[in-house]
Amino acid sequence: MSNEYKHVLVAVDLTKDSHLVLERALPIAKRNGAKISIIHTLEPLGFAYGGDIPMDLTSIQDQLDSHARERLGEIASPHDIAAEDQYVVVGMPDSEIHRFAAEHDVDLIVVGSHGRHGFALLLGSTSTGVLHGAQCDVLAVRVGADDSEE
Ligand code: AMP
Question: Which protein residue has the closest C-alpha to ligand 1 atom 15?
Answer without folding.
Answer: 13
